[in-house]
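Students often ask why we bother encoding 3D structure as a string. The short answer is that it lets us treat folding as translation between two languages. Here is a chain of 174 residues written in the first language.
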Amino acid sequence: PSPRNAYPNIWGSIHIINLLSPAQIMSRLTYIGIDPGVATGFAVYNSYDKTFEKIETTDFWGCIGAIKGLFAELGFGMVVVVDNPNLNKAVHWNQIPDVKKLGINGKCKYAQNVGMNKREASLIIQFLKLHNIPHKAIKPTATKKDATYFKRVTKYKGRTNQHERDAAMLVFGL
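And here it is in the second language, the structure alphabet:
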């Protein structure tokens, strides 16, 4: 028998891959957007269908578990995009929003939250590197999207919170 008859699935896969251009392969990827924090935003975007398969809030371990499960299912057909606050410059006390209203305790809490988010982002990125999972770290933007804007742009019908919208906007349209 010819090699094609002996291994039809392998040859079929190779044949299909050879027919796809790099742009076509990229358009079939699943993108995972992560907005790290105590409440971690997690979004799964199918670039072929141009739809969100999942948008949710989870904790650190739920995020890691979801990445492991998706990587086991999709392999290198996925790319994780992480909102990485470590790419921002250091925050000075005077740059904290509503600095006069917060007081010293509020400023300390704000700084503590920033540090926690930075650490979670670092741990997620370390996990991705350790497991050779394709990923990209993105510098956070200051602009937040409200629910009305998000629904209008993405056509997503479900309810979302700010963490979920931030994660989803990292990958929307890729």
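Translate back mentally: The beta strands are 30-35, 40-46, 51-58, 78-83, 135-138. Keep this in mind for the problem set.
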